[in-house]
Design goal:
Blueprint (H helix, E strand, L loop, with lengths): L2 H32 L13 H12 L6 H15 L9 H11 L11 H5 L2 H4 L8 H14 L10 H14 L1
Helix pairs in contact: 1-2, 1-8, 2-8, 3-4, 3-7, 7-8
């Protein structure tokens, strides 16, 4: 029973990170409008890359494991529309880290933040998170877990939170 409050806290932190990112987007859009620059799309949605970065902020110190690698692979696939991971891309790097992490000491492990803090730059394409995207990414994360559960506050939950925010916009 003690884990439920932790999950709630992690989910609340994740939600807060995504809301903060959304508010920053809106402030930047207002500033662009004030400066006379070209206006961005009104109600711009939270992208897959932004949701990956929110997950990195939420659970960034955790080493990447197989469920994270699968979620990143699914996220990259949904963002780019490419059927296979890009050579040297986020998904390939996540898979390599998931395979290497069990064999190295704690200091040498690749963490989620090591990989995902630059997701906006590292993804060759990006798009707003939809409910279908979130469901597919969550399914991939569950498949990678030996227990069949996603990591609390992880990539799948970040995508679900982003999809909910996008639906409300």
């Amino acid at each position: 029973m003690k884990t439920k409050p932790i999950i709630y806290i992690q989910t609340a932190d994740l939600w807060e990170s995504l809301v903060t990112m959304k508010q920053q987007q809106e402030q930047q859009e207002q500033q662009r409008n004030y400066n006379g620059e070209v206006k961005g799309k009104p109600g711009e949605s939270i992208t897959i890359g932004e949701a990956l970065q929110a997950a990195a902020m939420n659970i960034g110190d955790e080493p990447i494991d197989d469920n994270d690698a699968r979620a990143v692979g699914s996220a990259e696939n949904r963002a780019t529309g490419f059927p296979a991971p890009e050579k040297g891309g986020l998904a390939a790097t996540a898979q390599a880290a998931a395979e290497l992490n069990p064999r190295v000491d704690a200091v040498a492990k690749t963490t989620i933040s090591n990989l995902l803090m630059g997701a906006l730059v590292d993804l060759p394409a990006d798009k707003g998170v939809t409910r279908k995207d979130a469901d597919k990414i969550m399914e991939a994360e569950k498949r990678g877990s030996s227990a069949g559960h996603p990591r609390p506050g992880g990539i799948g939950e970040a995508m679900e939170a982003a999809a909910k925010l996008n639906e409300q916009a």
